[in-house]
Design brief:
The chain is mainly beta. It has strands at residues 7-11, 36-42, 54-60, 66-68, 73-76, 79-87, 92-95, 97-99, 105-106, 109-117, 123-131, 139-144, 152-158, 164-170, 177-184, 187-192, 195-201, 210-218, 236-249.
C-alpha cells in the first residue's frame, strides 16, 4: 500500500541535528541469533546519520502531493528522526526516508526496527523491503499505517503481477514498539515486540535481492487508502527510530 516510495534520487545525509527526543527503554540486540548472522546494527549513537544509510531526496514516484527532503532526517541523542512538516516554498508536506541500498542488499533475512510515530493525520510511515534493481513490484511492507490514528499496524506483500496480501494488528504506535519480519523462501513471519503476530506462506513471497527502507510520506487526498493531512495535522509529525538490526540466514 506504499507504492512509488523511492525518490528519484537518493543522497547521503552528511550531518544533522534533530529536535528533543526520548530514547526507547529497550536495548538494541547484540550478536548473532540461532540460524541468523547479524549483518547490520545501528543505534544512532553518532553525531549524524552513518554512511550505512542513503537518504531520500526528491519527488516520490506516483505521489504529486509529497516530497522527500534529506534535511528531514536527523540524528540526536541516540534516535534518528524522520520529520514531516509543511514546506511553504513547495506548498506541500515534506517528509524523508532512509535506505540500505548501498550498504545491505540480500535475498532473505531478518529485520527489526524499534520505532514510534507522532499522531498526525495524513503522515504515513513505512518500514519495508524494496527490490535492489528498483523495479516494482514486489515489495514487503512489514510495518506501515495509512495516516489515521496510529492504533493499527499493517503488513502487506505486494506481489509480482499486482496482487497483494495484507495483515494488520492493533497497538498504540505513538509508544515505542519493535516491528520486524523474518523473510525465508516462500514465507514471511511478521513480528511485533519479539513475537510473531502473523505468518504468510505463499509462493508469491519475493526471492530476489532487496534493501531495507524506512520512511514517512504525505499522500494526495484522492488516494484510496492513505489519508491526507488536514487542519487537525500538527505542524510537525515525527517518525522516530531508536535502533535497527538486520540478519542474514546461516547456511544449513
Amino acid at each position: 500500500m506504499w507504492w512509488g516510495r523511492m525518490a528519484l534520487a537518493l543522497t547521503l545525509v552528511a550531518a544533522g541535528c534533530g529536535t528533543e527526543v526520548v530514547s526507547s527503554s529497550t536495548a538494541m540486540p547484540t550478536g548473532d541469533l540461532s540460524g541468523w548472522r547479524r549483518v547490520l546494527s545501528d543505534d544512532f549513537s553518532g553525531p549524524a546519520l552513518s554512511d550505512r544509510w542513503l537518504a531520500y531526496d526528491g519527488q516520490p514516484a506516483g505521489d504529486p502531493a509529497g516530497w522527500f527532503d534529506r534535511k528531514n532526517v536527523t540524528v540526536d541523542d541516540g534516535v534518528a528522526t524522520i520529520r514531516g512538516a509543511y514546506d511553504t516554498g513547495r506548498r506541500r508536506w515534506a517528509t524523508g526516508g532512509i535506505s540500505t541500498e548501498h550498504s545491505l542488499i540480500q535475498t532473505y533475512g531478518k529485520y527489526e526496527v524499534r520505532f514510534r510515530a507522532d499522531r498526525g493525520r495524513g503522515i504515513q510511515y513505512a518500514m519495508l523491503l524494496w527490490p535492489a534493481d528498483g523495479s516494482w513490484p514486489p515489495e514487503v511492507d512489514f510495518a506501515e499505517d495509512n495516516g489515521d490514528r496510529r492504533n493499527r499496524l499493517y503488513a502487506t506483500l505486494h506481489a509480482i503481477g499486482g496482487s497483494q496480501v495484507e495483515r494488520s494488528t492493533s497497538k498504540d504506535f505513538t509508544k515505542w514498539h519493535t516491528a520486524g519480519v523474518e523473510w525465508t523462501p516462500g514465507r514471511l513471519a511478521y513480528t511485533l515486540d519479539g513475537q510473531v503476530w502473523a505468518t504468510l506462506h505463499d509462493a508469491r513471497v519475493p526471492d530476489q535481492p532487496m534493501a531495507l527502507a524506512i520512511q514517512s510520506q504525505a499522500w494526495y487526498c484522492a488516494h484510496a487508502w492513505q489519508h491526507c493531512p488536514d487542519t487537525s495535522t500538527p505542524p510537525q509529525v515525527d517518525l522516530q527510530i531508536d535502533w535497527v538490526v538486520a540478519y542474514a540466514r546461516r547456511a544449513a
